[in-house]
């Protein structure tokens, strides 16, 4: 059910190949065996069409002109090494990923090299009974058994010799994994190891996909913020240092923590897409729209929070100046009637310039501050909100389809630790930057109002997570429908010319 089709390539004839397939638990019924040697008499249906081809040229022509049934069978008889390699190439031409498992002491070097992934198995000698010499299944020697007992085995260590080990290592050079099978020292379950390797590989692929998508979502948010700054003529919501640190420090750190996501319980029950189907069935446009809905609204909220805090801080500074004798002349003319829409209408620079000139000429008087104080405060507030939103969004990437409530935040303890340290460190750095920009004198205006905390820290992250979960739910519905389609295509062996 994991989208893995086991196939046996046997040099024997049809009967022995079917017997071997039955012992391995493979299906041996209808449309299950093909001979790689061209048959003298081909099987035809009532319409005179060949049901299953035999021989490499006929199989290749059948897959191009008729259907892909020859690629779906479980057993291939009369398979020499060259024929097996040609059949593997046919599978690869039809976008199949081939994993080859074979003996390390057989001439399988070229076959291992032909496959996408290869696993070599060094099989030890089979212990033989001195009486039957291997004609029946051996049993373990009982403790205390005498040397002339009925079941006394002949053990051989031939494969442990240096020349055999060297031959096995040379044959296994194209292989990604090497396994051993011993009858005396305990056996290593090759298929079990292979199953776990495939499971871990799928988990890594899913995690890498989540890492890339999360980083792209964060980068898109930053791009939207910078674009809106240029379109609306806003002051810079984030400094260049902010953007550099977020792009190359924060986002990679949080995204890489997603590599430690746990495997989904349904991971080995899902069928992956083939390369030829990725562009049509994966629907990249639909995915881009879903992930845009998950990330772009947070960028708009960061812009709104920045403008709101900047206007509040700048109004406070203007109020401080209005109470001084300096509120005359060019400053009063430049800043009279200051409103919030000045930030998006392009009228704010003249007032900010007049404030800077006044602060530079006033010396160290506390009631006249540089407008950079309000700017730095708003920028640090916007950067803090961006970090909070990205960390919260990261927890919705614990799995592409499973809900956050189903998976649980603690399923990735590394992400929890990284999120805590990131928020703590960024909060400390933001507070330090505000102190350096606004001076050591504390004022209650330096803290955002409680309404801002409730709206931007309390309500919006929960709303963003809810939107993200809704998009995941929609993506999950499409995924379930796609899995049903892929399962039907994977399980059927009914070709165009097959008998009904």
Question: What key phrases describe this protein's structure?
Answer:
500 residues; mainly alpha; Rossmann fold; Calcium-transporting ATPase, transmembrane domain; 2 domains; 6% strand
What is the C-level CATH assignment of the largest domain? Mainly Alpha
Average of per-residue pLDDT values: 81
CATH superfamily of the largest domain: Calcium-transporting ATPase, transmembrane domain
Oligomer: single chain
What proportion of the residues form beta strands (DSSP E)? 5-15%
The helix content, as a percent range, equals: 40-55%
Organism: Alexandrium catenella
Transmembrane segments: 207-231, 243-264, 285-307, 381-398, 410-433, 453-471
Pfam families: Cation_ATPase_C
Keywords: Membrane, Transmembrane, Transmembrane helix
Please, could you describe this protein's structure?
The chain has 500 residues and is mainly alpha-helical. It folds into two domains: 8-195, Rossmann fold, CATH 3.40.50; 202-491, Calcium-transporting ATPase, transmembrane domain (Up-down Bundle), CATH 1.20.1110. The protein has 16 helices and eight strands. The chain has a three-stranded parallel sheet with strand order 1-3-2, with helices on one face. A three-stranded parallel sheet has the order 4-5-8. The protein has a two-stranded antiparallel sheet with strand order 6-7. The radius of gyration is 35 Å and the shape is elongated. Residues 235-472 form the Cation-transporting P-type ATPase C-terminal domain.
């Amino acid at each position: 059910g994991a989208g893995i089709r086991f196939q046996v390539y046997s040099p024997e004839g049809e009967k022995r190949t079917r017997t071997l397939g039955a012992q391995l638990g493979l299906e041996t019924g209808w449309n299950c065996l093909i001979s790689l040697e061209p048959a003298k008499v081909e099987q035809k249906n009532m319409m005179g069409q060949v049901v299953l081809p035999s021989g490499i040229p006929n199989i290749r022509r059948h897959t191009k002109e008729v259907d892909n049934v020859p690629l779906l069978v479980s057993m291939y008889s009369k398979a020499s090494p060259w024929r097996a390699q040609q059949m593997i190439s046919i599978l690869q031409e039809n976008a199949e990923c081939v994993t080859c498992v074979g003996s390390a002491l057989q001439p399988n070097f070229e076959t291992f090299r032909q496959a996408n992934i290869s696993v070599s198995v060094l099989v030890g000698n089979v212990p033989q009974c001195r009486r039957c010499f291997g004609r029946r299944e051996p049993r373990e020697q009982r403790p205390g058994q005498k040397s002339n007992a009925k079941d006394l085995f002949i053990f051989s260590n031939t494969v442990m010799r240096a020349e055999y080990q060297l031959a096995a290592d040379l044959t296994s050079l194209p292989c990604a994994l090497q396994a051993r099978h011993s009858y005396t020292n305990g056996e290593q379950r090759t298929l079990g190891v292979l199953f776990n390797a495939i499971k871990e590989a799928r988990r890594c692929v899913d995690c890498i996909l989540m890492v890339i998508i999360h980083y792209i979502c964060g980068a898109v948010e930053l791009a939207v913020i910078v674009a809106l700054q240029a379109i609306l003529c806003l002051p810079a919501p984030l400094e260049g240092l902010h953007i550099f640190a977020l792009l190359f420090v924060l986002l990679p750190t949080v995204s890489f923590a997603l590599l430690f996501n746990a495997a989904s319980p349904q991971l080995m029950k899902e069928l992956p897409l083939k390369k030829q189907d990725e562009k049509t069935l994966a629907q990249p446009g639909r995915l881009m729209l879903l992930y845009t809905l998950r990330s772009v609204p947070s960028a708009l909220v960061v812009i709104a929070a920045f403008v709101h805090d900047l206007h509040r801080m700048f109004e406070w500074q203007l109020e401080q100046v209005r109470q001084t004798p300096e509120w005359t002349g060019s400053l009063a003319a430049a800043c009279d009637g200051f409103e919030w829409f000045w930030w998006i209408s392009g009228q704010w620079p003249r007032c900010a310039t007049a404030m800077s000139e006044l602060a530079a000429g006033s010396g160290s008087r506390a009631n006249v501050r540089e407008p950079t104080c309000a700017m730095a405060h708003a920028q640090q507030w916007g950067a803090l909100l961006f970090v909070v939103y990205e960390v919260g969004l990261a927890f919705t990437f614990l799995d592409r389809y499973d809900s956050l409530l189903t998976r649980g935040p603690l399923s990735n303890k590394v992400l929890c630790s990284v999120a805590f340290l990131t928020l703590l460190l960024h909060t400390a750095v933001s507070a330090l930057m505000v102190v350096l920009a606004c001076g050591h004198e504390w004022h209650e205006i330096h803290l955002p109002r409680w309404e801002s905390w409730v709206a931007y820290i309390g309500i919006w992250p929960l709303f963003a997570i809810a939107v993200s979960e809704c998009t995941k739910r929609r993506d999950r519905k499409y995924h379930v429908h796609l899995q049903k389609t892929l399962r039907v295509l994977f399980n059927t062996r009914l070709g165009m010319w097959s008998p009904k």
